[in-house]
Amino acid sequence: MTFSLQGKTALVTGSTSGIGLGIAIELARQGASLVLNGFGDAEAAKAQIAALGARVEHHPADMSRPADIAAMMEFAASRFGGVDVLVNNAGIQHVASVQDFPPEKWDAILAINLSSAFHTTRLALPHMLRRNWGRIINVASAHGLAASAGKSAYVAAKHGLIGLTKAVALENATTGVTCNAICPGWVLTPLVQKQIDDRASQQGISVQQAQENLLREKEPSLQFTTPQQLGQMAVFLCSPAADNMRGIAWSNDGGWTAQ
């Protein structure tokens, strides 16, 4: 399959490392200009994108703040004319039982993992609809389709993100704008590595053993999905082959949700 995103601009939230950066790199390989976002090493991330010959900018919006999100979307419009491919990837995690879950952590997780996608989407849609072409890709999770104990806020947010995906897809079903979700299983990002390290510390086992246990509990393949694989899924969803794929939650989870 050959096609180009030349002349298109992609904005990927939470893209200075991990899944977001992997997706941004693959979109850049297809010719898209990139707006990166995140609190990681922005200059290093920009350098990786620029090395592919793509135009790239970074905006440090705090995705829990609607005013920051609006400023980021205005920044993308001023630099590139608007956002053609929106990837809502920013996310945080906290693990605790419901009765012990800090309310401020609940609010932050829902703000960043769910509400931010609403704000970026509502601001991206007018430009996409004017052009009658756009791609909204929400990075949900296996936890958007199945729950795990101790992750109530994350599970609620990711289930909500899939619901938002379906609603946006239906509202724009007769247009050239599509909305779909990608649902990874375990991806060895800094967020997941912290969970592994915490497990190892709490259980008095090696990090390697904690990693194996994590995979064995959920993922029959016993393999991590890679950011590159998720980036290639995003590229596919931007392709003509996906023109009529609308409101789908695409699993890439090593069999997690097939059980």
What does this structure look like?
- By secondary structure, the protein is α/β, with parallel strands linked by helices.
- The protein has two domains: 9-186 and 226-258, NAD(P)-binding Rossmann-like Domain (Rossmann fold, 3-Layer(aba) Sandwich); 188-224.
- It has eight helices and seven strands, in the order βαβαβαβαβαβαααβ.
- The protein has helices spanning 18-29, 42-50, 66-80, 103-131, 152-171, 190-203, 207-218, 227-238, and strands spanning 9-12, 33-37, 56-59, 85-88, 134-139, 177-184, 249-252.
- It has a seven-stranded parallel β-sheet, with helices on both faces.
- β2 (33-37), α2 and β3 form a beta-alpha-beta unit.
- The longest helix is centred in the middle third of the chain and has 29 residues, at 103-131.
- It is globular, with a radius of gyration of 18 Å.
- The two termini are 32 Å apart.
- Keywords: Oxidoreductase.
- This is 3-hydroxybutyrate dehydrogenase.
- Belongs to the short-chain dehydrogenases/reductases (SDR) family.
- Its EC number is 1.1.1.30.
- InterPro entries: 3-OHbutyrate_DH (IPR011294), KR_dom (IPR057326), NAD(P)-bd_dom_sf (IPR036291), Sc_DH/Rdtase_CS (IPR020904), SDR (IPR050259), SDR_fam (IPR002347).
The total count of helices amounts to 8
The end-to-end span amounts to 32 Å
User: What is the radius of gyration?
Assistant: 18 Å
Q: What integer is the average pLDDT?
A: 97
Q: Classify the beta-strand content into a percent band.
A: 5-15%
The poorly predicted ranges are: none
Question: What count of domains describes the coordinates?
Answer: 2
Task: Classify the fold: give the CATH topology of the largest domain.
Answer: Rossmann fold
Main beta sheet strand tally, sense and closure? 7 strands, parallel
Proper CATH architecture of the largest domain: 3-Layer(aba) Sandwich
